[in-house]
Amino acid sequence: MAHTPTRRGGGSPFPPIAEYGFLSDCETNCLVAPSGNVEWMCVPRPDAPSVFGAVLDRSAGGFRFGPDRTFIPAGRRYLPGTNVLETTWQTPTGWLIVTDCLVVGRWHRTHRRSKTHRRTPGDWDADHVLLRLARCEHGDVDLSLVCEPNFDYGRSPESWCYEGDDYSTGVISHAGPDADPSAGVSLRLRTDLRLGFDGRRALARTTLREGDTAFVALTWRAEDPLLPADYRHACAAVESTTEFWRQWLSRGRFPDHPWRRHLQRSALALKGLTYAPTGALLAAATTSLPETPHGERNWDYRYSWIRDSTFALWGLYTLGLDHEADDFFSFIADVAEHADDIQVMYRVGGEPRIDEEILGHLSGYDGATPVRVGNAAAEQRQHDVWGVILDSVYLHTRSRDYLSERLWTVLVRLVEAAATHWREPDRGMWEVRGKPQHFTASKMLCWVALDRGRQLAQMRGDYTTAERWRGIAQEIHADVLANGVDHRGVFTQYYGSTALDASVLLMPLLGFLPPTDDRVKATVLAVADELTVDGLVLRYRTDETDDGAEGEEGAFLICSFWLVSALVEIGEVTRARQLCERLLSLASPLDLYAEEIDPADGRHLGNFPQAFTHLALINAVMYVIGAEGGDSHPQPSYAG
Ligand SMILES: OC[C@H]1O[C@H](O[C@H]2O[C@H](CO)[C@@H](O)[C@H](O)[C@H]2O)[C@H](O)[C@@H](O)[C@@H]1O
To answer: Is Hydrolase among this UniProt entry's keywords (predicted)?
Structure first.
């Protein structure tokens, strides 16, 4: 039997997107299907080719550790406060618990520096080990291990061989393109079971009786692999990983509220999407999970968008988790220090080139093609990019009263770029692939760049620059009010159109106008009433927008959460709370979210888990709790 489970109950062989568990060590991440099969993992970096790619094609590799012949778990949960996943299995003969994590241990590079880490080393570091523990709780259970990598997005099946004289350790290697050994990947698998090999499949099977345990660990770390020697060491690795996540979460401020669990899961998902070596932040863990079932709106999100990342920092800041911002701002300084302008996204190592390519050999998730890797939007002009950085730096500088000279030099260039280009059309924050337009939200974010730049210049005592930037900000503000509002007094998608666009919900959240302004109220209510399907918000109507793609898309979750925050701003707290409750009820079984949701059936669509959704959830929940008099306060980014 193939290890990647095929069809359960007559439906699609692919699990629903929302049923994947997400593991991370803040460097690598993976998705675990409910069957216990790891169906997505890219090593050594999250933007590298996959070694387990079954989420995009059932033959592209997976790694299952679970009971033989039982594929539907009795229950799954994260150990509270962590990204450690626990799956409970009931089989006809017994009960089994499997614990999965990507191991985080104490900083261990004491004798030699890391080749990839550019940020200041902390106390913790990824061990580069995917660890899986099994323990039979009652009766007896036949345990099965099938580890079947398929390198290079399923294009390069290699074969396992033993390492050493016993059955405990196997190695499988892929030379990489150009047969360049430095571009290759080797996987090493260690277990206390007896491994056998069948080509690219590493197999083990045993019967566990009550109290029996087993472990398997997979590493891609070439030098000094940190594989546990036995089950006791494996347990210690799970404990250190648990301690890492809980210590990190303890730095945050979470209200004592029934929605706290959603805030904490969102914070953990955002932290899990960081790439610690450089400070980058992924938009999502995956590529090409479809925004339309079986459709072509399939994009690669395994990169660091400036917009997604800075908004994520806003979400974390709202919870008092602001250390990630330091590393991200250093990442910005790295990529922009010697460039004239900034791109909209970078690879996680800071590399600017992200060529888009179609992988025609993959069937796609549930038949959705094409599968894309790389992202052509990297070359677009999107004029929100300057404003989102300036807003984020302003937010963090205000609370710390410190801004590095290195970063300020970069920021000055970014404000000047906004001042130079704000009159030009762009592709907007939704990165449409159609004709450039004068997007209202892009102009508004150019105003943010000048406004926050002005305030930062003032903080530094540079009043001359501050005055000049104030003048340009006023000019942009007036231009948006003159051209971005329709006859109803509603802000529109772009100058001269009457189409609605959810991006303008940011107006009250970024302080472009006060929430009491009639145009703001009219816009928020127009989006709520006219740009929704069954109450959930579309980013725009695809039939009104030249976005360069065919087909419908689902409701955008970031926009739906923005609407919650905006409704609170304009005083519609009851409506905001109802929408927020509804959105929280649509969370995945593990409280994770994809990018979109099908309003008809609540099915999650698009890449997963998606930073955009989780960051907006945090702000929306804090807005509602704050408005209802909880112990938190609404936190618009500009508020003093
Ligand atoms: O709508 C077409 C575009 O869709 C993707 O962009 C979306 O995801 C980005 C990452 O989260 C986000 O920053 C952007 O606002 C979203 O619209 C895709 O990456 C683009 O290539 C595509 O043109």
So the answer is: yes
